Amino acid sequence: MAKVELKQPIVQAIAEDVKDAASVVLVDYRGLTVAQDTELRKQMREAGIIYKVCKNTMMKRAFEGTDFAALEEHLEGPSAIAISKDDATAPARILCKFAKDAKALELKAGVVEGTLYDVNGLTELSKIPSREELLSKLLGSLQSPITNLARVLNQIAEQGGAENCEAAPAEEAPAEEAPAAEEAPAAEEAPAAE
């Protein structure tokens, strides 16, 4: 078999991995210990990220005609590739966090949702929380006012309804607005009398 025929399945496998990827990040893994590499691979697997060490020529061929072709200029030296199909910022987030402890790991570049980012760009992207974290914060923000309203309504019910609750003392209005303030209670009392 010719060398091209042997390499073609590897190129196809890489192309298939990046086909619908949200992000692809390149790293230089030289200098990592076996324990560090094992831990990095474990974290990537748990996050649903494909992490592979591939030859640069194979990655170049696999990237041809895709958004990831912009990474070609960064394919020098040993390269590992982190591919995420769901969470676009997950590879950058995990790799940047891991690189803080493992100084040997160096980010090269990445393409996130069609945009090429250098090391500084990837570092900034790594600060963005995951989709799940953002959704939980949004849900918490939405639930807070509803929860507070429910507590107030529950306290009113426990005190025997709105009839037994005291009205909040009205703030004194400035002298110019005094007539408007006097008219407001009269307007509120009319519906209550009906």
From TrEMBL:
Q: What is the lineage of its organism?
A: Bacteria, Bacillati, Bacillota, Clostridia, Eubacteriales
Say yes or no: keyword ATP-binding present.
no
GO terms of molecular function: large ribosomal subunit rRNA binding; structural constituent of ribosome
- Name of the protein in question: Large ribosomal subunit protein uL10
The UniProt function text for this chain reads: Forms part of the ribosomal stalk, playing a central role in the interaction of the ribosome with GTP-bound translation factors.
Q: Which GO terms describe its biological process?
A: translation
Sorted alphabetically, the keyword list is: Ribonucleoprotein, Ribosomal protein, RNA-binding, rRNA-binding
PROSITE patterns (UniProt xref)? RIBOSOMAL_L10
- Annotated GO CC locations: large ribosomal subunit
- Record note on quaternary structure: Part of the ribosomal stalk of the 50S ribosomal subunit. The N-terminus interacts with L11 and the large rRNA to form the base of the stalk. The C-terminus forms an elongated spine to which L12 dimers bind in a sequential fashion forming a multimeric L10(L12)X complex.
Report residue spans for region: Disordered: 162-194
Return the Low complexity bias intervals. Answer: 166-194
SUPFAM superfamilies reported for this sequence: Ribosomal protein L10-like
- Looking at the record's lineage, which domain of life comes first? Bacteria
Looking at the keywords, is DNA-binding present? Answer: no
User: InterPro entries given for it?
Assistant: Ribosomal_uL10 (IPR001790), Ribosomal_uL10-like_sf (IPR043141), Ribosomal_uL10_bac (IPR022973), Ribosomal_uL10_bac_type (IPR047865), Ribosomal_uL10_CS_bac (IPR002363)
Q: Which organism is it from?
A: Mordavella massiliensis
Instruction: Family membership, please give it.
Output: Belongs to the universal ribosomal protein uL10 family.
